[in-house]
Each structure stands twice: as C-alpha cells, then as structure tokens.
Amino acid sequence: MITSDGRSIAGFGSARDITAQKQAGKAPRKQARRDLLTGILNHGAIVNELARLVARGIQGLPFVVAMTDVNDLKTINYRYGHQAGDSVLIAVARALSQEDALVGRYGGDEFVTILPGASRDNAKRYCKEVRNAMASIQLVDEKTGDRVSVMASTGLAFYPEDAQTVIELVKLSDTAMYAQKRQRPIDRAA
Description:
The protein is 44% helix and 17% strand. By secondary structure, the chain is of the alpha+beta class.
C-alpha cells in the first residue's frame, strides 16, 4: 500500500473459511422457493419448473400438468376457522406430494403438480391415489368434533400433445379442473 506522502508500507490481510456462511446463504434462497405454510414449491418456483421442462422442448420427456383446487375451502374457513383451512391446505399438499411429483402452491387453494414422464394412465392412477389419500385424512374440529372432509378437483394437461407453452398448459389444466368441479354435487348445507 502507498501512503499519501509516497512511502510504501506493508499491507496486512487475513484469510478465513467462509464455507459455513456460503451454506447459510443457500438456506434463504431455498426458502424463497418454498410456500411458507405447506413447504412445497411456491407459485414462482413451480412456474419456473414448468418453464424449464418446456424449454427442453419435445426432445425432453413428456409430462403432465395437474391443476388442483380444494373444494369448499371458504366454507371450511367460515365453519371451523382459518387454522382448520390451513390444516386442509397442508394435508392436500402432502397428498399431492407422491412419488416423483413436483408440487407447488399456485394460489390460495390451488396447486400445480408436474408429473414428469407420465402417461395418461399414470396421471389417472396418480389422481386416484391422491383422492384416496384425501379421503383418508382425519381432520377433526376441536370445538364441534366434526370431521372436516378434504376434497379437491383436478384437471390435467399433457405436454406436448395438448399444449406446448406454460401458459397453455396452465390454462388447459385449469379449464379441465373447473369442468370437474362443475360436475360434482353441490353441498347444500354450505
């Protein structure tokens, strides 16, 4: 180092291992990809995963996009409170997280699942397994003793045969999900 009067002086430095700090820095980035309530991927992260798969083009594996919406979550929140609704969202996220499924919370009570390499038969089997897992969920309201039913509607879109962009895949799976939702019986007690 050179001083203001032109004299040269020795510089001193230090070295330290910052591996732990780098590892700690990865944790916030990982958390930034996760939904705080359910622990699954958040909206941005699941959309990024879809974009990554689409970017591979048709040379990559085909995949299925499943849009799932929790049925009657507003009613559950109204009847039993938001903690019960949160428990339902956590249970649905767990039910969707099977095998190789990439699951993300797309919005309030909507989830996007990516099934890499899945055929139509695989996708139908996955949906059946998810319905069975939801049917076996045992959530009971502490105040009333009522069993809180966990049900959802799911729509599917297949890449590349149905659509070849993220927007088209989400739109098609969302449309199919709402079509399924319209076919279910209405809860008259709501």
